[in-house]
From TrEMBL:
Protein name from the UniProt record: Beta-glucosidase
InterPro entries assigned to the protein according to its UniProt record, in alphabetical order: Cellulose_deg_GH3, Fn3-like, GH, Glyco_hydro_3_C, Glyco_hydro_3_C_sf, Glyco_hydro_3_N, Glyco_hydro_3_N_sf, Ig-like_fold
Signal peptide coordinates: none
Gene3D superfamilies per UniProt: Glycoside hydrolase family 3 C-terminal domain (3.40.50.1700), Glycoside hydrolase, family 3, N-terminal domain (3.20.20.300), Immunoglobulins (2.60.40.10)
GO molecular function: beta-glucosidase activity
Annotated segments matching region Disordered: 8-45
Presence of keyword Ubl conjugation: no
PANTHER family in the record: BETA-GLUCOSIDASE
UniProt KW keywords: Hydrolase
Lineage, uppermost ranks: Bacteria, Pseudomonadati, Bacteroidota, Saprospiria, Saprospirales
Domain Fibronectin type III-like, first and last residues per copy: 708-777
GO BP annotations, alphabetical order: carbohydrate metabolic process
Length: 790
């Protein structure tokens, strides 16, 4: 057995088989030639995966090995006919030695193009796999990867709310159900790998990718991210029908870039890197067999992540024991030369990246093809290449691609009514009620509701969305809800956030003030005779998006509402009508004026393709608002950072201003009221290796059924290394009927109490801990009890 493959073995291999000797193959000018026999060990499913990999590696030329650590994306256009069907003649030129990944087979021309239906994609994937199996020397199938940030990004698939909204639900079970839905759809269409979930910790709301994250807290990101991985991959390390291999991303430090600019340096200490930004990765690696991790674009303390051997090998593999593959972010390898300037050319960039631990270059073959020359001239040890190839081959063997590379196009899954119900529920649970002056839920006494605002009748999906089966706007949802009733719904746009455009394309065009003031006048006229105004405003997919290239911007230095939205709010407020405001968009904004002039306010982020129905359900009281803030809302850009888990010497105060967040992490109101008892400990004292318990009794003291998220925070009162003023260490979402009570308990053990000590080792220090339980991170929403650790 080749010694470097010991690290590859360990998951998805329950058939040890026997040691085998590869069949001899003839040598030619470019290496090994001749097609292996059908009895070759790597073709035999009765042989262990490790031995199959070793057998196959021993047969491969350098060219064939390098092909397995590369992918095809843009060249698909050269590899396809005019009707986007597969052209084998082009394939012989473009991937004569096979390929590791095919990038996004759901797409045709790429970008914003809607692409193939499910059946069309399966037929396309089958033709590629058949050519690879039958026409290449070794017959190695390809892994197909897709985007699935908030549902499979493909034509007629299902799109739920952006991850920031999923995090807002604080609902583990619901999260798993959503991602399992995407897994079924992706797998049925021929995908084997999805580039999801994002577990970056977002600590700067100026950053345009906040919507893709699970918020500002490492514990929440780890918990929700774990459920996403389990939804994709299942509970064990075996592949089952309807599952796909997940990809954790982006490792690491991506969520607090300098100046809020995407891809900017992350200048953070190793302690903060480990305790905050790496913690979700560590937790999920520890608790699942996640198959892929993606390196981040940014540099961390001067070392780009794609070149960071300490991060991708020493820490990830040697310290944490990770067994899966590390994939590059799109073009991340060549950017070691083109952006970071730590490699003089792409050949050097490829050597640097694969030596650091990046196993495959996505989305295209750019820098890694030079690895052929690097191995042959001795600048890269072949063992380094073999290790990366082995990790990619392992996924192909574990997935069963050598035995069954084809699918039935008739079984490709599209969106279903059952999917709609789940997305509708998730959208309602992701709505965060920030204010309610007893106006909600809406009664039946309103004759006319005015639906106003730039986001009232717009498709609001955010990035990585493609073309889902449908989208229900706020206006459509309310019209459908009140159809046939005595309530009339009127609509006016009011203002625009930007002129219409695309998440993919530029430029982003600002709206002329003169035109918008005409729209404001029309909106005021439309609302004048209404009984209540539902105002949908905020951002859109152009004002908060991934800034992936110079000129394609998505970060902002301001958190103010874009354009004349505040002017619209002011003019509508003059009518004296109650206003219910819905704030959409990918990140927190300064909504102080909106809150001041509205009777009720929801932070919605993005709620998915059933947005209008989710909103109508909640406003009418048919569903309960179940969301909590997964990220604090600052008062302004000058109040950044605003995350709740700051150190004791931070947030000391500002002259003439409040230093605290406008709305803190974990906050969210209900239509009912809850009483949370003082926390009690099972034992007032525990040992450093023991596990105790804290409990509270929660009672619904209102007259409506509702949900509450009970949250556990801890604080080490005195520690060798400074600790945050509080840290989330547990949460449970409960649903209670009026008058109903429930006891909620949390463990208190090493997982909750540990931190990185002076020697950078995880320890539990003896001493006193504040154990805080309540309904948000705000001091006034928490009650504390002291735990002694001996």
């Amino acid at each position: 057995m080749l010694p470097f493959l010991a690290a590859i073995d360990g998951c998805g291999d329950d058939n040890p088989g026997s040691e085998t000797t590869p069949t001899e193959v003839s040598e030619g000018p470019s290496g090994k030639t001749g097609k292996p026999s059908e009895s070759a060990s790597y073709r035999d499913p009765a042989v262990s995966v490790t031995n199959r990999i070793n057998d196959l590696l021993a047969r491969m030329t350098v060219e064939e090995k390098v092909a397995q650590v590369t992918a095809v994306w843009n060249d698909k256009r050269r590899m396809d006919n005019e009707d986007f069907s597969f052209n084998p003649d082009s394939a012989r030129t473009l991937m004569p030695h096979g390929i590791g990944h095919i990038t996004r087979p759901s797409e045709t021309s790429g970008g914003a193009d809607a692409g193939r239906t499910g059946a069309e994609e399966v037929a396309y994937v089958n033709t590629i796999q058949r050519w690879l199996v039958e026409e290449t020397r070794l017959g190695i199938p390809a892994l197909m990867h897709e985007e699935s940030l908030h549902g499979l990004a493909a034509k007629h698939a299902t799109s739920w709310g952006q991850p920031i909204s999923v995090a807002a639900t604080f609902n583990r079970r619901l999260t798993r159900e959503l991602y399992a839905m995407a897994a079924r759809q992706a797998a049925s269409r021929g995908a084997h790998v999805v580039l999801t979930p994002v577990v970056d910790v977002a600590r700067d709301p100026r950053w345009g990718r906040v919507e893709e994250t699970l918020g500002e807290d490492p514990y929440l990101a780890g918990q929700i991210g774990l459920q996403a991985v389990l939804g994709f991959q299942g509970d064990d390390d075996k592949w089952d029908e309807g599952e796909v291999f997940a990809t954790l991303k982006h490792m690491a430090g991506h969520g607090e870039p300098e100046g809020g600019n995407n891809i900017a340096p992350a200048n953070i200490s190793e302690r903060t890197l480990r305790e905050v930004f790496l913690q979700p990765f560590r937790y999920i690696v520890k608790n699942t067999e996640v198959r892929n991790i993606m390196a981040s674009y940014n540099e961390v303390n001067g070392i780009p992540s794609h070149a960071n051997k300490w991060m991708l090998t020493d820490l990830l593999r040697d310290e944490w024991g990770y067994k899966g593959a590390v994939v590059s972010d799109y073009y991340g390898v060549k950017e070691l030369t083109d952006r970071h300037a730590v490699a003089p050319d792409w050949k050097a960039a490829a050597i640097t990246a694969i030596s650091a631990g990046v196993d495959i270059e996505l989305p295209d073959r750019e820098a890694y093809p030079s690895l052929v020359a690097s191995v042959k001239d001795g600048s890269l040890p072949v063992e380094v290449l073999d290790q990366a190839v082995g990790r990619i081959l392992k996924q192909k063997f574990d997935r069963g691609l050598f035995e069954n590379p084809y699918l039935d196009p008739a079984k490709a899954l599209d969106n279903t009514p059952e999917d709609d119900r789940l997305v509708r529920k998730a959208g309602a649970e992701g709505m965060i009620l920030l204010k309610n002056d007893s106006i909600l839920p809406l009664g039946s006494t309103f004759e006319t509701i005015a639906v106003i605002g730039p986001n009232a009748d717009k498709v609001l999906l955010g990035g990585y969305s493609n073309e889902p089966a449908h989208f229900i706007t706020v206006r459509q949802g309310l019209e459908a809800h009140f159809d046939g009733s005595q309530t009339n719904v009127v609509y006016s746009e009011g203002v625009r956030v930007t002129e219409p455009g695309s998440w993919y394309k530029d430029p982003v065009i600002a709206v002329g003030e003169e035109e918008d003031r005409l729209r404001i006048t029309a909106a005021v006229k439309a609302a004048r005779d209404a009984d209540i105004i539902v105002l949908a405003l905020g951002g859109n997919e152009l004002t908060s998006r991934e800034a992936w290239a110079e000129g394609h911007w998505g970060d902002r230095p301001s958190l103010e509402l874009v354009g004349l939205q505040n002017e619209l709010v002011d003019e509508l407020a003059k009518l004296g009508k109650p206003i219910v405001s819905l704030v959409f968009g990918g990140r927190p904004l300064n909504i102080s004026n909106v809150v001041e002039k509205s009777a009720a306010v929801f932070q919605c982020f993005y709620l998915g393709q059933e947005t209008g129905h989710s909103v109508a359900d909640v406003l009418a009281g048919q569903s309960y608002p179940g969301g909590k803030l997964p990220i604090s809302i600052p008062r302004s850009a000058g109040h950044i950072p605003a995350y709740y888990n700051y150190k004791p010497t931070a947030r000391r105060g500002y002259l003439f201003d409040d230093v605290n967040a406008a709305w803190p992490f974990g906050f969210g109101l209900s239509y009912t009221t809850f009483e949370v008892s003082a926390p009690t400990l099972a034992a007032p004292e525990i040992g450093t290796k023991e596990t105790g318990k804290v409990s509270v009794t929660v009672t619904n003291t209102g007259d409506r059924t509702g949900s509450e998220v009970i949250q556990l925070y801890i604080r080490d009162r005195f520690s060798t290394v400074t600790r945050p003023v509080k840290e989330l260490k547990g949460f449970e979402k409960i649903l209670l009927a009026p008058g109903e009570s429930k006891v909620v308990s949390f463990d208190l053990g090493p997982e909750q109490l540990e931190y990185l000590g002076p020697e950078m080792k995880w320890i539990v220090e003896p001493g006193d801990f504040d154990i805080m339980v309540g309904t948000s991170s705000r001091k006034e929403d928490l009650q504390a009890v002291a735990l002694r650790v001996r």
